[in-house]
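Internal ticket - ligand job 338, heme C:
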Amino acid sequence: MKIFLSSLLISSLFLLYGGGMSSSELRSLAKQNNLKSTPKSYSQLLKLFDNPKNRMSTKKINLGRTLFFEPLLSRDESITCASCHKIGEGGDDNLPTAIGFKNRKNPKHLNSPTVLDTANAKFLFWDGRAKSLEEQAGGPIQAHFEMNLTPKELVERLSKNPMYKESFKEVFDGNITFSDVKKAIGAYERTLLTRGKYDDFLDGNDTAISKNAKEGLKLFIRKGCVECHYGVALGAENIQRFPKHGKMFGFKNIGNFKGKDDKYLFRVPLLRNITKTAPYYHNGMVKNLKDVIKIESQYEINDELNNEQINLIYDFLKTLDGNLVDYGLRGTSNNPIY
Ligand code: HEC
Ligand code: HEC
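stdout (structure tokens):
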């Protein structure tokens, strides 16, 4: 009885406090829980995300951008990084599983994650096996079901092209190497950051997001979603068990991918632009974001949310939609958009 009464007291205090929370209190709560806005300026970006082993520069970024859209990176010159990571459409391909060289499907039925907002990722890929964007970029070029080219072949191809010869010399001060290709791509990807209404709210604009979205943000924090999905991108910083509660995924096990060490350990996905990156989960088996929120509540926080709560979290997740920040880097690029 005593326990019951005190828990009643605690939960009613909780409700009172929650109900009456001001925007600035909610903002502080978000910041205490390691939620952060996207940098607005290039100097802030560098301060937060530059890689000491691959310093960013305007020329390197422009070279990386050209390579990202370069079909020479694939064996039959038909596929670019942007084929599966459409920068203007959420940074992914909207397919359940990726389709690469000669229409080969990803053998584990893996879904293409977004490349947007990966600047701060501590781990990349669904099982978190790459630790930097530079390291990651080597994977798809070589995978026989993606671009299917060897590092040697790629270097030979690019070295025959006077524009690349010149650019690599300018940026890296030497002959073209596979390692420098990955560095240029990594430097470019670090600039693919988005800002939305959520950032405006975190940066001090009380009316940037709706009342419902604020309630959703509160639930996201209090129900513990934030324990895994945190940081500037709301994810990509840690590896966690999925499902944490329960035995199977809660969606079709197509591809039978079991994550890191086959232990159902998955890199926590980032949640920016989540409304644009359906279908969801490592094998792309769930189409509807509200279904995902329900599954997450059952399997990750073990506290099944009701429809009203799901709708509030959904309203919050929508505020994570953003536009690429213009860091003034478009310079001499032949791709003026991104
Ligand atoms: C055929 C489609 C396809 C192509 C082409 C492709 N990717 Fe991917 N990309 C994927 C898939 C699928 C994954 C997830 C694979 C995994 O986890 O094993 C992925 C993962 C990534 C990630 C990790 C994102 C994260 O949050 O973990 C980055 C970054 C990335 N790709 C960048 C690139 C770059 C750069 C290129 C070009 C050099 C490229 N991709 C070419 C399909 C593709
Ligand atoms: C214990 C860590 C953990 C917690 C807590 C957690 N998640 Fe996740 N979340 C994950 C992992 C890991 C995945 C990827 C699982 C997979 O694809 O197999 C994921 C996937 C997702 C996805 C799909 C992302 C995509 O691109 O496919 C969304 C959306 C999401 N979570 C939202 C939430 C919400 C909302 C909550 C709170 C109700 C929550 N998560 C709680 C770890 C967590």
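Auto-summary: The mean pLDDT is 93. Residues 73, 79, 81, 83-85, 98-100, 106, 110, 112-113, 115, 118, 121, 124-126, 133, 136-137, 140-141, 146-147, 185, 189, 236 surround heme C (ligand 1) (CB under 6 Å).
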